[in-house]
Amino acid sequence: VGGWYEHFLTFLLKRYCDDYYGVSEACCEWSGHFHIKSKGTLYNAVEIKEFQRILKEPDIDYRKEYGIPSGAKVISFTGRLIPEKGIKQLVSAVKKINISRTKKGQAPVYLMIAGDGILYQELIEMSDPYIILTGQVDFEHIVKILDASDIFCLPSDSEGFPTSVLEAVACKCFVITTYQGGAKELLVDEQYGIIMRDNTVESIQKNLEKVIEDDAYRTQAECKSYDRLVKYFTWDATAEKVMQIAKDMNGEKE
């Protein structure tokens, strides 16, 4: 029924629209399923000045609020708590990492989960002292959670162009996500972050362990992805592209 509805709605849209743009190259490719040939991309984006404003405010400190030691590594997830987001695999991977680190005499890592959904109660039951669920929080608190984090992990089965990845990069988090949707257009290779081919517990654990102790690599990747975000994935950049498209179309009509 969902597939039929998508095709029917697209059929109606195609009667009234001649030019299509996707929020990512992956979206443009997906649109081909509906026999739509996109003319280009208008990227999903963030308002970078708003992040800068919130990050300067000292009133919220999530590490202090939850008693997280200053040197501890923090992994975060923000979004809906549904099976498609791979959140249960992420929790299991972090728990396995901490078992391994305890055996080696290393400090545990923390996982902060912000959001709500059908898995919330199950995740509460899976949690331990190093798995922190904040529940649903507003945008400013999301920014502060990301600011307190070293790594953002979104191990989804399916995505478009996740705003949560853009938000994490805007807060200079190292990002690990899956090869779904448009995130790979921001994190173009491992100099920018990690794109996993799958979201198994083993894959998540391996990639998290790869970067947890590599501060130099994480910092370098954070800077490169942030610079790319500012150049291509802000609303100013997208608005400028929209204006250029409008000018080109007006020129064609003249």
| Strand order in the sheet with the most strands | 5-4-3-6-7-8
- Share of β-strand residues: 5-15%
**CATH superfamily heading of the largest domain:** Glycogen Phosphorylase B
SS summary, helix count = 12
**Distance between the amino and carboxyl termini:** 44 Å
Q: Using only CA atoms, what is the Rg?
A: 20 Å
- Shape designation: globular
* Uncertain ranges: none
CATH architecture of the largest domain: 3-Layer(aba) Sandwich
CATH class value of the largest domain: Alpha Beta
Q: How many domain regions?
A: 2
Largest sheet: 6 strands, parallel
Brief overview:
The protein is of the alpha/beta class and 254 residues long.
Structure explained in plain terms:
With 254 residues, the protein is an alpha/beta fold. The protein is built from twelve helices and eight strands. The radius of gyration is 20 Å and the shape is globular. The mean pLDDT is 92.
